[in-house]
Design a protein that fits this description.
The structure is a homodimer. Chain A has 20 helices and eleven strands. Chain A has about 600 residues and is of the alpha+beta class. The first copy, chain A, has three domains: about 280 residues, Butyryl-CoA Dehydrogenase, subunit A, domain 2 (Beta Barrel); about 160 residues, Butyryl-CoA Dehydrogenase, subunit A, domain 3; about 130 residues. In chain A, strands 3, 4, 5, 6, 7, 10 and 11 form a seven-stranded mixed sheet that branches. Chain A is globular and about 80 Å long. Chains A and B meet through helix 10, helix 11, helix 12, helix 13 and helix 14 of A and helix 10, helix 11, helix 12, helix 13 and helix 14 of B.
Chain lengths: ~600, ~600
């Protein structure tokens, strides 16, 4: 059975050697406490929780699923006890301010913790994960009294939170939403309507659930400009903030899903539930999306999680399972057959998984530094800096969410493939990873939505290509000094220089074309996203290879020499066998819009 | 809920207009009965069975799964009645000889029927599907008496069959198998051992189950040269062929699988079970693989089935579900939002599904003509011709099985993606398709095994590239006359000419390299397979576009003009947006073997 081991070696390589997190933390106003010792303690502590408490519940949670009866949701056996341990360890509060009972550490530490938790047990991680969005929203938009009422117990994990957006008729297109909120004499609102797909919307882990809800006032304008934001607790609070009577929000059902079955996905019926407005009226959608970048990066992590877990499952199997002889000659002549690992195509699959897991991790840990600076600016009240960092992060977000989750699904499927037919049966845990991974390209904005956000909003409209120029500027500054060197690093650097030019060329061509063809953005967006992802991941692989080479030449770093050599090798693999996929996305992104749009919709299938 | 409609229009376009099946049948010794009227009756009859009987059981069969208790397997509600209708309709016998009660029609008619059945309900189709391999094996290797005993009731569908190869320690590497067969005084054998992953190994649909089993004689040489083939009935037969006592073969368990849950995958324990040898001793593996090409094409169909079904689910959803406004301006201003179909990226997904389903269908229907000729030669006793056609089919087989099932999985996942979050919940049936489709790249030889078969056995060792030259010769003969013409067909033809040259170049380069690097074949095989698939599918799309253009120019064919226009459009889409993927596979196939092999296996992950 699959056994999770936190990839601490790789995490520390990125933190200490590639991305210089110690210096990064020293530069942050709220980074003083994030000393190397503190970071180590958090990594080790989270690893223990994940390996010993959460991972053992992953398969059983999937097999049992959540139970629903008469509005009550019961999580699978062991979840309640595990959540209690999570709360007792103070894990929810790592990156939240001390005034609300958190540890006040930079947001990135929450990312590292979430990655380990998500790999060990993604379904479990959804429950505290949804609270993060709720807490961030309250911190930004709640009154002082509301903060005092909700935040300490949310930050402690004693209560959990949700984000209630989707309704049956709309997910992406929230302008269609119908839930109504009517003002009451006491300043509260009565909410009526039904929300679907609410993760952690109802469960038995926490004493109270705080719902952040999008709804319309009676006189609100139609569409997205008539949406307001409300906080609706499952149990209303008494004046002393103790739990009062049950609010009129009830779980009508939970979904039967392909995967993440231990995560309750609720239909919530608001039948005149009492709520309180957050922020300004009719500005709810903006408020809800304030932390969209971080929320989406929280979902991007899932790609890394499932690539990592599937790799951890497939690698030992490939080392142990014996099948056929290597075409290049017997490798283990005293055995009945050679291990799978000797077959080049099995290595192709394993290296693809490794490249995705470790490359995706580097991308996310790098983006987490921007997120740290963004939250620091917010806490320091520096709105201008906050917006600048939010905008910088905004270029990474759709690439990370869209690209890494697509590749995470590929990696999960490759893990099954290494197992052959055994990958398809439940016993090995490999098929669960593929089912769990499948949601990641769908929720928190589908890949198609990320692609439109990237090419339409961020690259073309938002910056006329500047964000690509900025990022490739960074790539070129890294690549140029290596460009003339022999060996793998020189090759990678030259490839990155070409890709940087090509990426800007692609952007410019799409900018020009989109001015005269309004279908161009939508027609090219997916392939532009994937192209961008492959080039960006290439940069982060070269960065890792460069640091590994440097440390090897200098006689070593924290890890054994083999670790650094494998980094260089995997980077070579990536450039030789995965980066070429950028070529097909380049061609497809420049294909005519007619090739998509010319067919009459009624002709797509004539039976 | 998903509703299956047999794609008769597309099937008839391929049969009557593109591939000229009427002439093909006239040329076959056993084709006289396959008149257009007979073919129509079979297509219509199978469509009705599939739409009305099998499709309605697809979701319920998945939800219920098979039951196992004390060695007895019960199929989901309705399966027994549906199977009875299948038997009553004589559907098992369509392509089997009249002397055994079949209709004696060409094998391709079984392919068309199987495709419809498999799309409607793949799990159900597995039961009679496994019988086909059993029947073919008995027809070739059984004695006259054995044929008389088994074949009439197998051909009628009253009994079903299995193929028992896999054991816990080996699937691909059958040389490792351990099941023993000991000769008895009466000429029978006693089989002892355990087989796993036996599809249709135990169930309640048929009165008897006839197992074809690989096992070793006590004095057999080790490895693949010591394997013999046996027939082992679940119920032994009395002298008059009536059912006798229960044989000592018992179902120990059924697997819990990611998908195809209504198909029972059994562990079979042979505890001194009585069996009878088929063919020569120690030649069992060859005998088992006699019909491997057709069996693998039977699995390739699954890629088409699930691409088709997922497309049939996604298209109406995209026409009905409304989300956002088209970036190119409001399309349905009187509606709350525009339908998904107006968004270019949704069209990209739908057209990819359509291209895979209809392109894969064309590839398989073309290969089925070779299979027809192969079986005709076999029936006519012309061994030389039989082997020539088998060898011709052998080039198509790994491409069809490997490439089409990989793309079928992609198409199934795209169908979920069109649904957004709704694709992930069970109600719409889309996630079941993705789960069911996932097995296709694993069983009947993984994609990696198909790739080795193609590049190693068929292309390099078997023909020094001749089979690529032969196939591209056909492509060039088709493409050259169109090469100078304007419009989409000329463009496709020129692209195919380039790809044909490139394919041969790739083959030659790999041939030269493999002479000095024994890792080359394994390192390039997957990407060579995918490259070959994309080019081959390109040819079959151009073929369809050419016929559609010709019919449009001539004022029409069987279908409405819009049908033909959509064919041309989809071919253009394929060449513009899917065929470019061949570029990345070309690059990866030529990447150094070191990029896969240089890393020490112990260094792939150092924690």
């Amino acid at each position: 059975m699959l056994k999770y081991q936190a990839p601490l070696r790789d995490m520390r390589f990125l933190l200490n050697e590639v991305l210089d997190y110690p210096a990064h933390y020293r530069s942050l106003p709220n980074g003083a406490d994030a000393t190397p010792e503190m970071v180590d303690a958090i990594l080790d502590g989270a690893a223990t929780l994940c390996e010993e408490v959460l991972a053992p519940l992953n398969a059983s949670g999937d097999a049992e699923g959540c139970h629903f009866k008469d509005g009550v949701v019961t999580t699978p056996a062991g979840f309640k006890e595990a959540y209690a341990q999570f709360v007792a360890g103070g894990w929810q509060g790592v990156s939240f301010p001390e005034e609300f009972g958190g540890q006040g550490l930079p947001m990135s530490l929450n990312v590292f913790k979430s990655e380990m938790m998500g790999t060990a047990n993604w379904s479990f991680t959804m429950y505290p994960g949804l609270s993060v969005g709720c807490i961030n929203t309250l911190m930004q938009y709640a009154s002082a009294e509301q903060k005092a009422a909700y935040l300490p117990r949310l930050v402690a994990g004693q209560w959990s939170g949700t984000m209630c957006l989707t309704e049956a008729q709309c997910g992406t297109d929230l302008g269609q939403l119908k839930t109504r909120a009517e003002a009451q004499a006491d300043g509260s609102y009565r909410l009526t309507g039904s929300k679907i797909f609410i993760s952690a919307g109802e469960h038995d882990l926490a004493e109270n659930i705080i719902h952040i809800v999008l709804a319309r006032l009676p006189d609100a304008p139609a569409g997205t400009r008539g949406i307001s934001l409300f906080v609706v607790p499952k149990f209303k609070l008494n004046a002393d903030h103790s739990l009062g009577e049950r609010n009129a929000v009830n779980c009508g059902a939970i979904e039967h899903k392909m995967g993440i079955r231990a995560s309750a996905t609720a239909t919530l019926n608001f039948d005149g539930a009492t709520g309180y407005m957050l922020g300004e009226q009719n500005k709810g959608l903006e408020a809800m999306f304030t932390f969209m970048n971080t929320a989406r990066i929280g979902t991007a992590i899932q790609g890394v999680c499932h690539a990592e877990l599937s790799f951890q499952g497939a690698l030992p199997y490939a080392l142990e399972r014996r099948s056929m002889r290597a075409l290049s000659g017997k490798k283990e002549p005293d055995q009945v057959a050679d291990a799978l690992i000797w077959h080049p195509d099995v290595r192709r699959m394993l290296l693809t998984q490794k490249a995705i897991a470790e490359g995706g991790r580097a991308m996310i840990y790098s983006a987490a530094q921007i997120a740290d600076k963004m939250f620091s600016s917010l806490l320091a009240g520096d709105q201008l800096k906050y917006e600048a960092y939010d905008s910088e992060l905004g270029f990474f977000t759709p690439i990370l969410k869209g690209f890494i989750t697509e590749l995470g699904l590929e990696a999960a499927n490759l893990g099954m493939q290494v197992f052959g037919g055994h990958g398809y049966i439940q016993d090995h845990g490999m098929e669960q990873i593929a089912r769990d991974a499948r949601i990641a390209t769908l929720y928190e904005g589908t890949t198609g939505i990320q692609a439109l956000d990237l090419l339409g909003r961020k690259v073309l409209l938002g910056s006329k290509g500047k964000c690509v120029r900025d990022f490739t500027g960074t790539v070129l500054r890294f690549a140029r000094p290596h460009a003339l060197s022999r060996g793998p690093l020189g090759k990678m650097a030259r490839s990155l220089i070409c890709r940087s030019l090509q990426w800007n060329l692609l952007t410019t061509r799409l900018l020009l074309r989109s001015a005269r063809d309004r279908e161009q953005v939508g027609a090219a967006s997916f392939d532009f996203l994937m192209y961008s992802g492959y080039v960006m991941m290439g940069y982060f692989w070269a960065l890792q290879a460069a640091k590994a080479s440097q440390l090897l030449a200098a006689g070593g770093g924290e890890a054994p020499a083999e670790f650094y050599q494998a980094k260089i090798d995997t980077a070579e693999f990536y450039f030789a066998r995965l980066l070429p996929r950028a070529n097909s996305h380049y061609a497809a992104a420049l294909a005519s819009t007619a090739s998509l749009m010319q067919t009459d919709k009624a002709s797509l299938r004539i039976n």
